[in-house]
Amino acid sequence: MYKLVLCIFVAFFMSFILTPVMMKIALRVGAVDKPNERKVHKGTITRIGGVAIFGGFVLGALLMQELSFQAWGLLFSGTMIMILGLVDDIKGISPKVKLLGQVMAAVVLVYFGVEVKFITNPFTGGIISLGLFSIPVTVFWVTGMSNAVNLIDGLDGLAAGVSGIAAVTLAVVAWTQGQFETVYLALLLAAAALGFLKFNFHPAKLFMGDCGSLFLGFILGALAVMGLTKGATIISLFIPVIILGIPILDTFFAIIRRFTNNKPIFEADKGHLHHRLLEMGLSHKQTVLVIYAITFLLSSSAVLLTMLTTDQSVLILIGISIVILVGADRIGIITGKSIAGRVQGDKAKHYMRG
């Protein structure tokens, strides 16, 4: 326990002291983020702060010393992802090259034994062996999570805070399943994210950049595979999805929104959850805190599900799904229609009927 506490402190402290260093380095290499019509910040701000998160996490993990083969694979593939994002932050790379790099890192992770070997059948409760499909399923999951966290990195402190909450929850659930190495690694990730958050919360002094958001998403996705896919119950299939609900659902709704509006799936827009909350009149800081609260509620629900019977868990899952769908539709995340636009449309319909 003493060593774990020491490693957590090191992860936090290293991230905390590296962040201002990365601010200076970012200015020298020209890694700056300039405002545009999609972004909510107004001035030029440095990025590549994610290197500090990476440094804190890796140093804390190395101090643990007794790492498994899978953990070494996590560190190696995570380093690949961080470097990929760093190159994109400084030089810029095409989406296809970035995706190829993510897939390569995920394949390396699978080589080290981190893969989803089976899933539970939600209808019968039986176990479905994925066989050869375990590789593409794992690659899809980890790559998807990496991009999902990258997509929510649109407000000061949002990605770091949401990832930190998710990491702590992953640690709690992994502890209930006896996956202690996953517990330690998840807590180190949360500590590193927290050390960076001091400089990234609104008003941010720097951004994490793709090297940070891609790394956080990749590690969270990998830890979910390492610690939460070992259960043979129906509900174990949904636990990681609930914990990582904000980035997953925001990405899922973005795909639906762009498809239904005949727009390219990879075309950026202002229909994400944080954009909608800002449109409703919330301040920058209020929007981030609201999303923190939603993440905390989803995470608490995930922990609760591990303590209930299967029937009780299914009922709660249905309830959560209904609330999410209704809420997402109300604020326009699914349709892409603004709150103001929907109100004007309703008034127009009322006028025509009258």
Key traits:
single chain, mainly alpha, 14 helices, 70% helix, 3% strand
Give a description of the structure.
This protein has 354 residues and is mostly helical. The chain has one domain. It has 14 helices and 4 strands. The strands form 2 sheets. It has a two-stranded antiparallel ribbon. Strands 3-4 form a two-stranded antiparallel sheet. A hairpin with a 6-residue loop joins strand 3 and strand 4 (127-129).
Task: Show unreliable segments.
Answer: 341-354
State the total count of DSSP E strands: 4
Percent of sequence in beta strands: under 5%
The average pLDDT value, as a whole number, equals 85
Alpha-carbon Rg, integer: 20 Å
In helices, the fraction of residues equals 55-70%
Tally the helices: what do you get?
14
What is the rounded distance between the termini? Answer: 71 Å
Largest sheet strand order: 1-2
Shape: globular
Q: What is the H/E order?
A: HEEHHHEEHHHHHHHHHH
As for the number of domains, it is 1
Note the main sheet: 2 strands, antiparallel
Structural class: mainly alpha
